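Fold this sequence, please.
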Amino acid sequence: MNIDLTDTTSSQINSALVKARRASGSPAIGMVLTLVIVTDEGNHYDALKAAGEASKEHPSRILVVVRRPGRSPRDRAKARLDAEVRMGGGGAGAGETVLLRLHGELAAHAYSVVLPLLLPDAPVVVWWPEDAPEKPSDDLLGTLAQRRITDAAATEDPEAALVLRAETYAPGDTDLAWTRITPWRSVLAAALDQKHTEITGATVEGEEYNPSTELLALWLAERLSVPVERDVSDGPGITAVRLMTADGVICLDRADGSLAELAVPGQPDRHVALQRRSTAELIAEELRRLDPDEAYEQAVRFGGGGAGTGTGGVKQAGVTQGGVKQAAAKKPTAQAAAKKGAARTSAKADAAEPEAEPDGTQPAERDGAEPNGAGPK
């Protein structure tokens, strides 16, 4: 059931939702959350289709915010709200869908339009398929949400987007580039559970500007505290991960984007399903948990220049060397550099410090000079 509303208000939209619910024979609200999608006319169809599929697993009220500020001064001076209410079937998934088009000045006040349409006493998730704000937690719509979803892969510079996500991280932030590597992390963790051995290094192979490859390298470097090399391949996505151990190389290789081969020293090779997942599956996974993702925070801040890291971020972690990018594990490297620096400083101080006379005085003091080198009085 579809209801079109032109030049309407949030109150009239709520009334249309109640009317549609009663007409469909389900007056009770059986939804578990509100999903707010902030997008544009060019991308709202794909985003809405993915959200509708995800709502079959998580029944929700989907609010699609499409800003249309207008091009001419006359259009920008107007303020109009158009809405389309969809209930059951089609793009509505297993819940309710409201497509909101904010024209003119109203495009800058999406918060005031969305707030009255949120489900009462239910979590709120905000998703930016593209053009996410620099700091999602400070965005007015972002302040409504317990979970804020962005996608670094949809930006022009994915590595710079990861650096920005690290610098502006707040509890509740997440990125679909991180969600895409969940199967990889699961298989690698299971392989290490089966093979208890010392890890000496790792290599992650994937497309050059793939943020998921960068995040997987950073996660391994942060969790294992070993150097991690970043090799560039033709893709698709992540193609291989190799863990160097005392017993040999643990290799997870996915050349075709669907079926991977896991090789563990001392065990027969076996195939693992690592299909590249759709956006709907990624959104469904993110909606399963609404608490802060601490593993994502640690990984993105480890290489992204977040609070307390003092590093240059993912770009420093990816240094191109002969066609190979290296995501160095900064924790052990920084500690080793600090120890070497302290040793050099101590050695220089010992070499520069003059020997004391038998009476305990320094040569400068014995000659009548001030200890600070100011010369004799």
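The longest helix spans residues 330-352. The first strand starts at residue 2 and ends at 5.
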